[in-house]
Structure formats: structure tokens, C-alpha cells
Amino acid sequence: MSDNSASTTTLHGSSAGKADNEPKLRGNLGTLGLFFSVMAFNAPLVVVLGVIPIMISSGNGIGTPMLFIIVGLIVSAFAAGYLRMSDILKRPGAFYSFITAGLGKKVGLGSGLAMLLAYFWVCAGYLPYGGVVLDSLVSNTFHGPDLPWYVWAFAFWLIVAVLGYLRVDFSAKATALVLFGELIVVLAYDVAVFANGGAAGLSTAPLVPTNWFDGSIAIGLLLAGGMFGGYEVTVLFRDEVRNPAKTIPRATYGLIACAAVLYAATSWLFINALGVDNAVSATTADPIQAMDSTIVAFGSQFLLDAATVLVNTSVLAVIVCAHNVGARYLFNLSADGVFPRALSGVHARHGSPHVASIVLSAAALAVNLVVVVLQIDAMVFYAAVLGVAALTGISVQFVTAIAIPTYLVRTGKHKQHPVKSIVLPSIAAVGFGGIVTLSIVNFTHLTGGSQFVSNILLVFVYSFFAFGFFLAVALKRWRPEVYRRIGRQ
Question: Where is each Amino acid permease/ SLC12A domain found (predicted)?
Fold first, then answer.
């Protein structure tokens, strides 16, 4: 049997009988619940307050708004093939399952381990950041005690550990409340700037093609690409949503459209709030203060205070979502037998991967204890691990964009929808491939400028792919029954 032959087997006939004995998660997420769970992972308020100003200062300047549209189109092209694959290959596991089906179990397992690593590092890396911003809120805004960051980080960790253990619906409701507040603040800011006409009238200069290539478009694309992460969740939660055939496409396209329009519009209005001629210099001098000053000038001090509070809940929502996705990756890999099967336990009441969730929580706590003991700077650690997570995620999306048309053509299931099955995924592969290349070339910008550290992290990222590949080779030889199950086969 070839490496790909088992991958083309659908869940019918004998395969269905096997699937009935597999552990299965349960949930009752609707379209809005799924949308909120995924959109919260993108942390729109964190993007607006902490990323857009940096994109303008370090990326391609006033051309920043169009990058969100460009990346949104790339992601939309990918989503067409991704959802087509989801309709045909009705398995949980998302990227892990699809890559296995298209490119074989060895590449599939390497990619699955890489994505588990990416989501785990988001969980672990955002805890120090959460501790820092919560300490700032408590001590500066509320004039409370100024405690070490890890005290507040532990509070974040505890909340995430509890929500991750419970039924996914609980997390969805919590993140929905957080996201609703974030969107209200961002929309209030946008309306205020638009109504007042910006600093000197609303200019369309940021939308003119001649400004798209200002500054460093490479850095701009890297940062913009990272702002559309998390849509994999729509398929990964297949077993936990109502009517997947309708819920998953609606939530996926809703997420992409919302992110592209919201970020493009807000960055355009922010540039106009500073003034087109002053935007780059103002954000370069102090990106955070530049945004804060426009919030107060066009909104109010109350709006800024609300944004400061909601940044903390936004961070919490990111960690909750990353934890939930990471736990499900660990669950799927364990259900396949790659990791101990005990980790694929499903809670009798909540239908959650509670064992995998506990293990992920413990690992995140252990990593942060090491950071504390070794006295590593919280923000340096945060920046480095998020650089790793971003590059890993984009790389796996690139591989998935290749795997989807490969599988659909090989099985002959591309004929009814050739555009969705071949053309659009291929366009996405070119787009993601370009972003991956730019990420590697400019990786020092994500890791503080150290080439040595950047090289170590790059080796670390792709060594996980290699480890998964050779682990699959070993399983094929010594544990063929486990090898056959790789990719939720």
C-alpha cells in the first residue's frame, strides 16, 4: 500500500465502522458562536492598538490598508479550496488531516506536530504579555498594587485552564462577550474619525497604487498575514458545531471578510487621523502613543480607558482560543495513536478533550516557570515565540494549499468544481509561498534583530516538521497500525 492510498479512503463502509469506535468530541456551536471563537483569536483590538501602528512605521507606511485587502484575497482563495476539501473529507483534524490526505502521512504528521507547536507557543507566549498588560492596567489605570508580571499571568492561566476543561460552548460565550466589546470600541473610533474628517480631510492617498510599495512591503505582508490566523478552527471544530455544511462556510467567510474590511478601514482612518503626511513619522516616534492620542482626540478619554481594559480581555480570548485549538490537535494526534491514547479522553458531561486540555495547561505553566526562574524578559520571550508561531502557521498553510488540489485531482473530485479545487488553492499557494519566503528573509525583524537567535528559531521551527516526518517513517516500520491512522484515517 502506498503512502497515499489509505489517505483517499473516505469514512464509508468499513472505515465508518472504525470511525464509530473512535473518540468523538461534542458541542452545539452555531454560526455566530463559531465566528466569535475564531475572530477572538485574531484579537482585533490588539491588532488596532498594537499592530497597525507598527505596520505603518516599520512596514509599507501609508500603503498599509491595501495589504489587508491583498492578504484577505489570498486567504479567501485558500478558503474556497479548504471548504471544498472539508465537504469531501469530513474529518476533524483540519490542516493535519488534509495534508495527510494530499501529500501522505509523513508530511501530514510533520505538519500536525508543527501546528500543535504553533498553537502551544501562542498559549505560552501570550501569558507573559497578558501579565504585563494586566499589571499596567491595575497599577497605572486603577492605581492598584504593582506586582510582578507572572502573578497576573497566573490569573490568566487559571481562567484559561478552567475554560479549556469545560464544554467548548462556554468558551464561545465568554469570547463572544469579549469580542463584542472590542468591536464596539473599534467601530466607535472609526465612526468618530470618519465623522470628523480626520486631521485634514479624508484622503484616498493610502489607496493609490503608487503608495502600496512604500517602505518595506515585506514586513507589511508578514504582519498582515499574521492577522488572519485561526480560521482553521472552523473545520477543526467540525464535531462540535450544528449543521457543519452551513455553519463552517458561513463562519469562515464571515471571519475573512470582517477581518479584511475592519483592519483596512481602521488603518485608513488611523492614517487620516494622524494626517497622511505625518502618519509615518508619528508612528515611528512612538507607535502606541500615536494611536492613543488619536483615540482621545477623536473619541474621548473614556474610549481610551475602555480600550485599555478590553486589551486585557482580548489577550485572554486569544489564549483561550489557542488553548482550545491546541488541545484538539493533541486530542486528534492521540486518537490516532501517535501520542498515548489516554490523551484522547472525552469528558462524559462536557464532551471536551479534557485530558489533552489539562496536559496543555500544565505544559504552558511549566514553560512560563522556566521563563521566571531564568529571569527572561517577558516581552522578549513573547516576541520570539510569536515569531515562531507566525512562521510555522504560514508554512503549514502553504503546504495545505498544495495538498488540497493534489488530493482532489488524484481522486477525481476536482471535476465538478475545478476553480475551487485547483485554481484558487494554487493562487493561495503562490501567495503563501511568497509570504513564507519573505518571513525567512526578514525573520530578524520578528526576533529583535539577532541573526544568531533567528537562525536558531528557524532551525527549531523546521526541525519539528522533520521530526514528524521521521517519526512517521519509524511508525510505519514498527507500529504499522498507528501509521495507518495518521491523519484521522
Answer: 53-480
SS3 275: coil
Strongest mean pLDDT among 317-321, 328-332, 472-476: 472-476
- What distance in Å separates the CA atoms of residue 408 and residue 422, rounded to the nearest whole number? 8
What the chain holds in terms of domains, given with CATH numbers, is 24-485 (1.20.1740.10)
pLDDT band at residue 245 under the 50/70/90 scheme: confident
243: buried, middle or exposed (CB in 10 Å: 19+, 13-18, 0-12)? Answer: exposed
Q: For residues 124 and 40, what is the distance between their CA atoms, to the nearest angstrom?
A: 17
Contacts of 208 (CB under 8 A, 6+ apart): none
Q: Which residues contact 261 (CB under 8 A, 6 or more apart)?
A: none
Contacts of 102 (CB under 8 A, 6+ apart): 4, 7, 400, 402, 403, 404, 405, 406, 407, 410
Which of these, 38, 42, 37, lies nearest to 52 by C-alpha position? 42
Residue spans of alpha helices (H) in 197-339:
217-226, 233-236, 244-274, 279-285, 287-298, 301-335
Cell 474590511 belongs to residue: 261
Of 280, 295, 297, 296, nearest to 220 by C-alpha is 280
d(C-alpha 193, C-alpha 201), whole Å: 10
